[in-house]
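Notebook entry, structure prediction.
Reason for the run: the old model in the group folder had no record of what sequence produced it. Starting over properly, with the input documented here first.
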Amino acid sequence: MASHVPAMKDKIKIPESAIRRLSLYHRHLASLQSLGVETISSREIATVYGLAPFQVRKDLSYFGTFGHRGRGYSIIKLREKIGKILGLDRAWTMALVGAGNIGMAVFRYQELRSQGFKIAAVFDSDPKKIGKKLESGVVIKALDQIPHEVQRLGIELGVLAVPSEAAQAAADSLTAAGVKAILCFPSGQINVPKDVAVKRVNLGVDLETLSYFLTNR
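New structure, fully documented this time:
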């Protein structure tokens, strides 16, 4: 199943590529704000990412009117608006399934916390890991505890960092408990209800894209 993003704004389907670019814009604006820059134009944003200025304006137009023609955008206001669009104006509680190398790298990734994503529960099938207390006080629990913990903690996002053959069962447990969005590291296919968003992390594809550019430069 391909990655998908639910429709937004009165059933207007927003392209996933546009949402991904909004995330990039938000990060760039944060860097500029830290440097004290106050305004920016669509052309300046576009230049950073090798885009045409109209693409930046189109991406923003899905969500309303921003800035003033000929005067550019206020960096503070634009960053705040994009942050709200992306849901970064609130904290998100997450569940991590899989406490192996990838799972622990995700758990310890500091940028998650700075962006408002908190991993409040970790699950694994390995008896040697179950019961282990992690740095933040989170205790690794057995997979059969997913329904209880997801509902107890009000978790809405899940991260799968398990072998491909275990991914479907883990996804089923998360979605049955009410999780509506899953970040999935296994490369295998998983099936979820239509109202659940899935994003697959595929390092192989990203590396092959880079190797293409190196080969054809």
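Summary: The chain has two domains: 16-85, 92-204.
The old model has been moved to the deprecated folder.
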